[in-house]
Specification:
2 domains; two-stranded antiparallel sheet; 2% strand
Length: 216
């Protein structure tokens, strides 16, 4: 478990450095990004009793993974090493036993903690994982996949606005899920495998756009 937490922390640090090389010193409000994601999760789960709604469990799980990105980021401190942060995560989870909360209850508990304490509580996040039926290994592989996709987006013009999220009639998240499902999750080079597979598919989009832009 610690090895996987260390890898996720390292990947999050690398991703954040693409946005700002000295991101830790900027002291961004990661807790705010987390509670806003909680609101988006609620929309996918459904809370409007006055109209017909069907919970989108896959989108809910994607929102949980997005919250984990912000939770990891919120734990960084200039005085702490990644090893120290990993040990703190494991220590905070010692003796953890889920309270059997509903997704609504767990989401509200996490959001309330973010707003009250201006930080993301790891145990509250684990409650949300349990409510959404996500185990640690599922969190790990989904996180690695989404982190790689975030890198891919940045490398292909996301910040500049030239990146296309719709590929061949589907969102890039859907392509990612399909790619991850086909890979061996125990491979040491799984990050490279995901990135290369995304590149291959996106190349088809660029080729199609190039062909349509060429005068007849």
């Amino acid at each position: 478990m610690k090895e996987k937490i260390l890898l996720m922390l390292s990947m999050q640090d690398s991703m954040n450095k693409k946005v700002h090389p000295h991101w830790v010193a900027q002291n961004f409000e990661w807790y705010r990004a987390a509670w806003v994601e909680c609101g988006e999760l609620m929309d996918h789960q459904g809370y409007k009793w006055w109209k017909k709604q069907v919970a989108d469990s896959e989108q809910v799980k994607l929102e949980v993974i997005d919250i984990w990105h912000f939770a990891l980021s919120s734990l960084f401190n200039a005085d702490k090493t990644i090893e120290h942060i990993a040990d703190e995560i494991i220590a905070r989870l010692e003796g953890f036993s889920p309270q059997a909360l509903s997704i609504h209850q767990a989401t509200e508990q996490l959001a309330q903690g973010c707003l009250s304490n201006k930080r993301v509580c790891v145990r509250d996040f684990w409650e949300l994982m349990a409510a959404a039926n996500i185990d640690f290994d599922s969190l790990y592989i989904a996180y690695v996949g989404k982190n790689v996709l975030n890198f891919f987006r940045q490398d292909n013009g996301y910040k500049e606005g030239s990146y296309q999220k719709q590929w061949l009639g589907r969102e890039d998240n859907e392509h990612l899920a399909e790619i991850v499902a086909q890979l061996d999750h125990q491979k040491s080079d799984i990050r490279d495998s995901i990135y290369n597979a995304l590149s291959d598919r996106y190349a088809q989009v660029l080729a199609k756009n190039s062909a349509s832009a060429t005068p007849a």
